[in-house]
Specification:
This protein is α/β, with parallel strands linked by helices and 223 residues long. The chain has four helices and eight strands; from the N terminus they run E-E-E-H-E-E-H-H-E-H-E-E. Helix 2 runs parallel beside helix 3.
């Protein structure tokens, strides 16, 4: 059965003493792609982690509703650094009750006996992709998926995303590098200012004041 999409309403995010964004709402139908953009520090990684359930939204946030499961990929492959790559991936394959990952397609077939800690940056990124595919999640959250990859690796990521979308999966990507995402919606976090002034200043230490009791400025949702 085809997976459904994602709906998130009125999300607020505070990290430490600083608000990153406020009143962010989005909706993604099956097969959609969203490209998160904005300068460093605007909250792209934090938003992905919120949507992945790794961070709690800041009150008075609304809800995050996934129809289906989601997998998250950042710069860490979530593999045992001391195990050979093949064994590290096999551990998760068994735990996830997943089918074998196509290592040849990912350029990892000759690295089965190499401990994860000895892999290069690009090889670690490919190993992370293998782990992500092995999860069998319906939707993907990708944080800088092209870091450390050459042009062939970038093409691989683009083809994997296209395949996931064709199967009805939602893909959210934060990337500073050019990435082919046909028909993707652009979500610029600067459209969801963290303070009533809309100047991008957070409340707390950097603003010299506590959060006011009223809600933050309302951003524009995606539809």
């Amino acid at each position: 059965m085809q997976a459904g999409g994602l709906t998130a309403t009125e999300l607020f995010c505070r990290r430490g003493d600083r608000f990153l964004f406020g009143a962010l709402s989005l909706r993604a139908a099956p097969g959609a792609a969203l490209h998160l953009v904005g300068p460093n520090g605007t909250g792209k990684t934090s938003l992905l982690r919120l949507l992945a359930g790794l961070l709690r939204p800041t009150p008075p946030s609304g809800a995050i509703v996934w129809q289906g499961t989601c997998g998250y990929l950042d710069g860490r492959p979530a593999l045992d650094e001391h195990l050979p790559l093949g064994e590290a991936l096999a551990f998760w394959t068994k735990l996830d009750h997943a089918a074998a990952v196509p290592l040849e397609r990912l350029g990892l077939a000759r690295l089965n006996d190499i401990p994860v800690r000895f892999l290069s940056t690009g090889q670690r990124k490919r190993a992370g992709l293998a782990r992500l595919i092995g999860q069998g999640a319906d939707h993907w959250l990708l944080d800088e998926p092209l870091n450390g990859l050459d042009s062939d690796g970038a093409g691989l990521v683009e083809s994997l995303i296209a395949k996931k979308r064709a199967a009805g999966g939602v893909v959210l990507v934060a990337s500073h590098q050019p990435l082919a995402l046909p028909g993707a919606q652009i979500l610029d976090l600067r459209d969801f200012p963290p303070s009533p002034s809309g100047k991008g200043r957070g409340w707390g230490l950097d603003a010299g004041m506590d959060p006011p009791p009223q809600p933050l400025a309302t951003g524009k949702g995606l539809g």
